[in-house]
Amino acid sequence: MLSGYNRCEIMDTPSTRRQFLRQSLCVVAAGILPWSAIKAAAEENVSGPRSLRAHAQAHGLLVGCAVVPEKLADETPYANTVAQQANLLVAENAMKWRALRPAPDKYNFAPADAILAFANAHDQGLRGHNLCWHEALPDWFQTTVTHENARQILTTHIQHVAGHFAGKLHSWDVVNEAIDVKDGRPDGLRKSPWLDLVGPDYVEIAFRTAHKADAKVLLTYNDYGIELDTPEQEQKRAQVLALVKRLKSRHVPIHAVGIQSHLTAGEGIPGAGLREFIRELRAMDMQVFITELDVSDHKLTGSAAERDDAVAKLYGDYLSLVLAEPNVKAVLTWGITDKYTWLNHQHRRSDGLQQRCLPFDVEYQPTPVFFAMRDALDARRRP
Ligand code: G3I
Q1: Is the Cα dihedral 311, 314, 318, 319 positive or negative?
Q2: Are residues 2 and 138 in the same domain?
Q3: 242 close to ligand 1 (CB < 6 Angstrom)
């Protein structure tokens, strides 16, 4: 612990990066410690027992992020930060149809296997994402899959892929984003190629096939736009609950719901509707995973510090709400560093500035989001 100095008070453990930097400048300016020692102290403040994974493990939680195999292999700071902070990983793209299936008769498991090897080497679990989605389908899909062969192609893919990873994964996103209330169906199902080609029981078929290929893995239904207290998101939550109820009533193996949690600062806050949704899932003996958490700052103006504070506050408020529910078992952010967030593509800021949306910035320094997440993890079990 650094004691106080005539020019500035050094607190025991800075809880934000800004506090740490302010203290550090005092100490360096006072000629008391070299910058290298300061950087080492910064590292110590977020690693080992101070890391997200340590704080999560202390409360029986899993925490982690989506990863890209090429970055794990080629970018040391990326790999080190992922290893240091996560005890659960998910492939951002490497386990989707488009990545796994270069041709109708070909599978490419190498990138996904590289992520699995990294997870095993760092005592981390791995989520599979995803076995059935209307996006990220390979180019050959449209010209190959017909009403006659769609069911066979879907079940063969799931048998092969879930079979390849059998016994090695924490959970699968078996079906991703199957609900779209705007499509107007009574069952709320999205008018996707799978619905069109296989029919509404494609969801049940996918879950049953996955369970047959790997009886140990937790089978998850994953979706977005179910976080906020708006009429549209309340309707979508109701349809997700109805889908889960239908599957459970038919004894379909389903164990968890993934709440993607792609939030936007300045666009409403989560509330009682989400809490009730999680509790209704608990009543059905369902686990809940926060699967793709990030907070877009594209609607925010103001300084970087002001944007950081607003983003970190939403992380803290959101995680405090969901982590108060005992069936919420895991929190994954959609990426670990602002440097590679998908938000810089799909939610570009009009001013062209870099999104500031994840626990580590473009130089792998912890952001206020990191500290907000760590505090929320710690608050989990407080009475
Ligand atoms: O790998 C190719 C590259 O070879 C090519 O040069 C480049 C040019 O287009 O495309 C690259 O593939 C891109 C891929 O990400 C890898 O970067 C695809 O075009 C692009 O569509 C793909 O976007 C991903 C998107 O899902 C669609 O699969 C995003 O990275 C990924 O963050 C996003 O993640 C989704 C979740 O899976 C489901 N929930 C929503 C979430 C955000 O959309």
Answers
A1: positive
A2: no
A3: no
Task: Evaluate if pTM is beyond 0.90.
Answer: yes
Kindly report, residue by residue over 286-295, the tens digit of the pLDDT.
999 999 999 9
DSSP codes joined into one string, 7-29: S-PPPSS-SSHHHHHHHHHHHHH
Helices marked H in 11-92 — which ranges? 17-29, 35-44, 52-57, 69-74, 76-85
Q: For atom 36 of ligand 1, which residue has the closest CA?
A: 92
What token pair was written down for 171?
């959970």
Taking the centre of ligand 1 as the mean of its atom positions, its distance from the CA of residue 190, in whole angstroms, is 21
- Does one domain contain both 32 and 111? no
What is the domain range of residue 250? 50-379
Tell me the pLDDT band of 11, cut-offs 50, 70 and 90.
Answer: very low
Whether 110 and 164 share a structural domain = yes
CB 296 near ligand 1, within 6 Å = no
Question: How confident is the prediction for the chain on average, in pLDDT?
Answer: 92
Verify whether ligand 1 is closer than 6 Å to residue 92 (CB atom): yes
pLDDT of 310-339, one tens digit each? 999 999 999 999 999 999 999 999 999 999
pLDDT of residue 128: 98
User: How far, rounded to the nearest angstrom, does the alpha carbon of residue 356 sit from its chain's CA centroid?
Assistant: 16
Domain count, the chain: 2
**What are the distances in angstroms from CA 305 to CA 261, 344, 365?**
23, 19, 14
Among 65, 67, 92, name the best residue to mutate to test ligand 1's pocket (greatest count of ligand atoms within 8 A of Cβ): 92
Residue reference for tokens 């049940």: 204
CATH number at residue 240: 3.20.20.80
Q: Decide whether any atom of ligand 1 lies within 6 Å of the 93 Cβ.
A: yes
Distance of CA 322 to the CA centre of its chain: 14
Same domain membership, residue 177 and residue 266: yes
> What is the CB neighbour count within 10 angstroms for residue 304?
14
Torsion of CA 159, 160, 161, 164, to 10 degrees: 110
